[in-house]
Design goal:
7 helices; two-stranded antiparallel sheet; mainly alpha; globular
């Protein structure tokens, strides 16, 4: 499935909810459904700089596709990380580096996050794209 197809799926899932409290609850549910990250990957190297809460992303190449594991100590941030893992895992590094991520605005995430969470989201995306660029150079 392409990044765009996954984004469309997510937009469809969030369109079911009219109220942002329901969307937050769904984000929390998504985060809770993410597989636990092994403690060995929760290192300073994998910690996302610029997030108020602690968020870890671990990249791994399998063949020519890049996969991510993530975790956070904050429930909404963990849900956001889970969305990004869903969108980016199993994609080619070049596609990740060039992704537009229009779904974030379409579901209203940017407008409904606090400034610190919004900065954290930007930091997560920036780090994922940096991983993609680094892996595509190998």
């Amino acid at each position: 499935m392409s990044i765009e197809e996954i984004e469309r799926e997510i937009v469809g899932e969030f369109s079911v909810y009219d109220d942002w409290m329901d969307k937050y609850a769904y984000l929390i549910e998504i985060g809770n459904g993410m597989p636990a990250m092994d403690e060995q990957y929760k290192t300073d190297d994998n910690l996302i700089k610029g997030c108020q809460s602690r968020v870890w992303f671990y990249p791994e190449m399998r063949g020519d596709l890049l996969y991510f594991m993530a975790d956070s100590d904050a429930i909404i941030t963990k849900g956001i990380a889970a969305l990004l893992v869903r969108v980016f895992s199993g994609q080619k590094p070049e596609e990740i580096a060039n992704a537009d991520l229009g779904f974030i605005d379409e579901i209203g995430l940017t407008q409904h996050l606090s400034p610190t969470r919004s900065n954290g989201l930007v930091s997560m995306i920036r780090q994922i794209k940096m991983y993609a660029i680094a892996f595509s150079a190998k």
